[in-house]
Amino acid sequence: MIMLEDLTIDAQNLHYKELNLRIREKIKENNKNIKLINVNGQRYICAGITGSEINVKVIGIPGNDLGAFMNGPKIEVLGNAQDGVGNTMNDGEIIIHGIAGDIIGYGMRGGSIYIKGNVGYRVGIHMKEYQEKIPVIVIGGYAGDFLGEYMAGGRIIVLGLDLNNKEDIVGYYCSTGIHGGVIYLRGFVPEYKLGKEGKVLETDEKDMDFISFHVKKFSEYFHIDYEYIISEKFYKIVPYNKRPYGNLYAY
Predict the structure, then answer these.
(1) Which residue from 19, 109, 117, 251 puts its CA 20 to 30 A from 159's CA?
(2) Alpha-carbon span 57 to 45, nearest angstrom
């Protein structure tokens, strides 16, 4: 991950505004590798930060909207994360070594998010893409209700690792309102949990090349055997059409 010596900021007892101010000051001083310790719910970490050479390691649990509007940095969280990770993110990479909350990747426009464990509700809502800019979310565990709701573009990969017999890989209303993008699910697809706007198809060679690329990165980040993950069959959920609610409007 981050190989160079890190500049350390202790977040203990810091208000989120003060913490974010310190991060920005250190970046202005040309510090490219920053480690945050004792993080405990501070919001908006790295929100709006631009710069592809910036690496931020977070030790603790960041609050809502980690990396919101971010454009290029790489964030690695050695713990869990709360809601709104990657909100309207434009570019960069976020790696979470635990679980994450709701609305991960809300309105995400680019970059990638890798989460080792489970995620909450409405992950990938309103994701979008433009030409070659395709945002990606990879989830190692299961996803809660409304995964990919109103999705307009991008890719979501759900691996469903370590599920127990009482859990499906996704919650209810997966793909509700989807009109662009693709959701990939590993293993069994509980079709009774899908929204009526999405349909399940077999993956093709192009799909598997895309999945393989991101699963390899996931495997490297979290030290999980790639061959074990990729040996299971993958399916894809795509929209029935690009205007699922077109008949609700007069024009």
Answers:
(1) 109
(2) 11
Cβ atoms < 10 Å from Cβ of 246: 10
Written as six digits, the tokens of 78 are 């050695």
Query: Shortest CA distance to 159 belongs to which of 232, 82, 220?
Result: 232
Predicted TM-score of the model (pTM): 0.94
**Cα(21)–Cα(98) distance, rounded to whole angstroms?**
26
Task: Provide the pLDDT for residue 5.
Answer: 62
Q: Give the pLDDT of residue 248.
A: 64
Length of the chain: 251
- Divide the 251 residues of the chain into consecutive groups of 10 and give the mean pLDDT of each group: 70 96 95 96 96 96 97 97 97 98 97 98 96 95 97 97 83 96 94 93 97 98 97 95 68 55
- Number of other residues whose CB lies within 10 A of the CB of residue 86: 35
- Give the Cβ contact number of residue 26 at 10 Å: 18
Distances (CA, A) of 230 to 19, 109, 162, 246: 40, 27, 14, 38
In terms of phi and psi (left: phi > 0; alpha: psi -120 to 50; beta: otherwise), the region of 166 is alpha
